[in-house]
Design brief:
mainly beta, eight-stranded mixed sheet, 9% helix
Length: 113
């Protein structure tokens, strides 16, 4: 049996941009991508603490050290600049792997660092 488990979480990051006129995706500071073990183009599940919206998109890389969390395209209707969100990724694990798995949890300051 394969189980879907939390792979990584960026907890309570602040949306720095919401760009409606953009192709789509979520731009994330490269430092946060690396720390959270999130690949560019990986599927993301985003939970908006501020307004309760939940949606999925994919990650793109923003400049390292910038603190950028930009919700782009149609998803920009679901988040505004200043909103607190949780960004999660999930992965499939065989039952034997699942018992040893620990997700990568990242906690940030108000500047997403």
């Amino acid at each position: 049996m394969e189980l879907t488990l939390l792979k990584s979480k960026l907890h309570r990051v602040t949306v720095s941009h919401a760009e409606l006129d953009y192709e789509g995706s979520c731009a994330i500071d490269d430092d946060l991508l690396r720390t959270g073990n999130i690949r560019e183009y990986e599927q993301l599940h985003i939970y908006n603490i501020t307004n309760g919206e939940r949606f999925s998109t994919y990650a793109i890389r923003a400049e390292a050290g910038s603190g950028i969390i930009s919700i782009n395209g149609a998803a920009a209707h679901k988040a505004s600049t200043g909103d607190l969100i949780i960004i999660c990724t999930y992965a499939g694990f065989a039952e034997a792997e699942a018992s040893a798995h620990k997700p990568q949890l990242v906690y940030v300051d108000p500047q997403n660092r």
